[in-house]
Amino acid sequence: MKVLITGAAGFIGSNLVHYVAKERPSWQITALDLLTYAGNLKNIADLVESGRVSFRKTDITDATAIDSLFEREKFDLVFHLAAESHVDRSIMSAREFVSTNVMGTQALLDASYKHKVGRFVHISTDEVYGSLGPTGAFVETTPLDPTSPYAASKAASDLMVLAFCKTHNFNASVTRCTNNYGFYHFPEKLIPLFITNAMEGKNLPLYGDGMNVRSWLFVTDHCDALLRVAEKGRAGEVYNIGGNSEAELTNKEVTRMILEILGKPADLVERVGDRPAHDRRYAVDTTKIKNELGWTPSTPFKEGLARTVAWYQENQEWWREIKSGAYLSYYEKNYASR
Ligand code: NAD
Ligand code: DAU
What we know:
Layout: E1 2-6, H1 11-23, E2 28-33, H2 45-49, E3 53-57, H3 63-73, E4 77-80, H4 87-92, H5 95-114, E5 119-125, H6 149-168, E6 172-177, E7 180-181, H7 190-199, E8 204-207, E9 213-215, E10 217-218, H8 219-232, E11 238-241, E12 248-250, H9 251-262, E13 269-272, H10 287-293, H11 301-314, H12 316-323, H13 327-336
Parallel strand pairs: 1-2, 1-4, 2-3, 4-5, 5-6, 6-11, 7-10, 8-13
Antiparallel strand pairs: 9-12
Helix pairs in contact: 1-8, 3-5, 5-6, 7-9, 9-11
The structure holds nicotinamide-adenine-dinucleotide (NAD) and 2'deoxy-thymidine-5'-diphospho-alpha-D-glucose.
């Protein structure tokens, strides 16, 4: 089995590379990534250096390069994760989100269809559904109502994938997952930002009233779901993936838990201006993936968070290097005006 994983040097992609390499030892894995600010080859360096995984630095929006890669490699399966993924950056500028998330997905679909890829898994997000009130959960048929440029670009790419299934009888599924957390998570997102800021004794910039709710999923549980969808999911179908109800928490609660694990004071929290169109609550109904593919999340949030904090304590070189680079100008731009 020849497998391509796009976005393989990012947070979820690199965890998926490790997961698939371990769970499917006979599979040949190609890891593709452009290595943007969010991609870090160190995340998969052990597997690339040992020869277990081949790495290709390629831009998914470069349709010619993608077409020749697919012609050469004859992939059986594609996991598509490459994307611009940060909501705050999409609010500053949407252009790259449309280019990578929409046009890049289309280039992969064209090449996959032309070169007869047997199965395609498109990794999307619960953010395409918009925002929930205090109760209820998104199901796979909930109408799409994205509120950020990031979510709109993901919704567009989902629709393109599903259109290929209908038009070309293409064998793809779309997954829509809630917020992931775990190892190799880029420190611009809430959990890794707050862990590392607290370790540095810096303020934790909590948006608005801190009462927005996210449903947290340990990244390895997400990888387990993705492998099941690849192997047993149905073509043309959408699968929601999400954390248990105990992992549905306000940002304030998550912040308190991080400070408690690290033994840091509550006065590190700094209330800052809210994100525009800040979605109040996300939660997904996972009945479909549970009934069809036997998937449920297995890592309790408290345990997963403690393991994540320990990872950031043990891998300070990894995140200190990131936080000292170009990251600084993004941080200044995003937080100075709040
Ligand atoms: P990430 O930002 O950590 O990683 C994205 C990767 O894509 C990076 O390595 C980057 O270099 C690469 N990339 C960006 N543009 C590219 C291009 N033009 N060509 C090739 N590679 C490119 O993101 P993540 O959090 O790992 O998310 C991965 C996928 O999962 C995304 O599609 C995202 O929408 C989806 N998702 C993420 C979450 C989450 O909580 N992080 C939840 C649900 C869905
Ligand atoms: O729901 C899935 C989505 O989860 C993915 O599709 C996205 O790629 C991923 O980035 C994530 O989006 P969020 O916007 O929910 O994640 P983020 O970590 O940016 O923010 C989580 C919550 O924390 C959100 O309510 C905003 C808040 N927040 C975030 C940051 C960065 C803060 O209060 N302060 C911050 O500094």
